Amino acid sequence: MNTDYFQTTIKLKATRAIGQANINARSLAEYELPLPSLDMQKQIVAQIEQEQKRVQATKELVEIFEQKINDKIAEVWGEELHEEQGQNASSNGTHKKVQPVQRAVIEQAELGLG
Fold it and tell me: Is residue 24's pLDDT more than 70?
């Protein structure tokens, strides 16, 4: 709808009344939207599905690395992880919440920068 072709074509169908353009629904419904070929549409869908799989796999990797980092933090602090509560128990029996790791740290680890 933002193409020059659409804007020019649709303005030709517009009527003016007191300085304001109006396009009736019938004129708009008659406008044929150009669509890519069916083969091209299938290629686009396949490409999007492939990218969605990559995104999902990346999300799963982030979760895995977040857990590994939290486990390592708990190990360094000498705390035992209680997964069902999402808390750590220190040797004196008190509970501390595991701090979430910042996204930048995870991205650096994935890129081998950290």
Answer: yes
